[in-house]
Amino acid sequence: MDSSSSSSAVGLGAVDPQLQHFIEVETQKQRFQQLVHQMTELCWEKCMDKPGPKLDSRAEACFVNCVERFIDTSQFILNRLEQTQKSKPVFSESLSD
C-alpha cells in the first residue's frame, strides 16, 4: 500500500486499528529521525570549526552542551504545547458536539 492510498483511507475513517497503530508508530519514528537530523545539523554547524581525525575538548564540550540545550528546548516546547492543548478544546472535538 503506498502512502497516498493509506492517507486517503485514514481520511475516510475506514482503517483497521492495527494499521492505524502502525501508521502512528511509523509517524513517530519519522518525527524522531527528523529531530535527530535537525539536532545533528545545528550542533555540527555551531561546534565544528574544521573537521579533523579527533574531536578536541572544546568541540566535544560544545556538542554535549548543544545536544543538552536542544533536548531541553524541545521538551519545553512539547510540554508547553501539551498544556495549551489541554486548556483549549480541539477544533474537531468542538465540531462533533
From TrEMBL:
It is a peripheral membrane protein. Its main location: mitochondrion. Keywords: Chaperone, Disulfide bond, Membrane, Metal-binding, Mitochondrion, Mitochondrion inner membrane, Protein transport, Translocation, Transport, Zinc. Pfam families: zf-Tim10_DDP (PF02953). GO terms for molecular function: metal ion binding. It is found in: Mitochondrion inner membrane. The keyword Acetylation does not apply. InterPro entries: Tim10-like (IPR004217), Tim10-like_dom_sf (IPR035427). The keyword Transmembrane helix does not apply. SUPFAM superfamilies: Tim10-like. GO terms for biological process: establishment of protein localization to mitochondrion; protein transport. It comes from the Eukaryota. Residues 22-83 form the Tim10-like domain. One of its GO terms (cellular component) is mitochondrial inner membrane. The twin CX3C motif contains 4 conserved Cys residues that form 2 disulfide bonds in the mitochondrial intermembrane space. Heterohexamer. Mitochondrial intermembrane chaperone that participates in the import and insertion of some multi-pass transmembrane proteins into the mitochondrial inner membrane. Also required for the transfer of beta-barrel precursors from the TOM complex to the sorting and assembly machinery (SAM complex) of the outer membrane. Acts as a chaperone-like protein that protects the hydrophobic precursors from aggregation and guide them through the mitochondrial intermembrane space. Belongs to the small Tim family. This is Mitochondrial import inner membrane translocase subunit. It comes from Cavia porcellus (Guinea pig). The lineage of its organism: Eukaryota, Metazoa, Chordata, Craniata, Vertebrata.
